[in-house]
Fold this sequence. Notes:
alpha+beta; Nuclear Transport Factor 2, Chain: A; five-stranded antiparallel β-sheet; 48% helix; globular
Amino acid sequence: MFRKMTWQNLLSLVxxxxxxxxxxxxxxxEVIRKTTDKIIAIVKxxxxxxxxxxSERDKLIRAAAEEIFDKEEMSxxxxxxxxxKRTPAEKNEFMELFEDLLEKTYIDRVEGYSGEKVLxxxxxxxxxxxxxxVSIMTKQETKISVLYRLKKKETGWxxxxxxxxxxxxxxxxxxxxxxxxxxxxxxxxxxxLKEKVGKK
Length: 200
């Protein structure tokens, strides 16, 4: 369950874009950059360093990240056809657990930023949807392609999926969650998620 793949570094990749200067910076790109700057400021704040500050630091990072990710849209797309069958209470429970899973999986990686270089390669907006293309150059001079998918909501542009080297976060989890539901049940999926994030 929850296989380790290239996109597991996604949150750190979201963050490091604040250290680059985009050639093209439309509104969706600016939304990502501004939130990223806020998170990086938290990570680098001297007053928040050290293991004794980890809980406070993580709480601030989570709050900032919530500004850029569309929890409901990501959850709906991840469950796909199973979403429609769920009650409002079940949807809310899944959204909270899915958010906890992403945070538990990636938040420690945020603090592992080591100065990767990033280039913005373009942005395409079609109505209420947008794509932001980014290339990340690692210390080993390896180029990693990242594609952010955003949707315009009343509150502004929000990220609902990322693809790293062609691997979609949402598609990957959709496949895993669908397999669990089909072999067990939706409650079986909730149980596995609770085990994964340490909730009873």
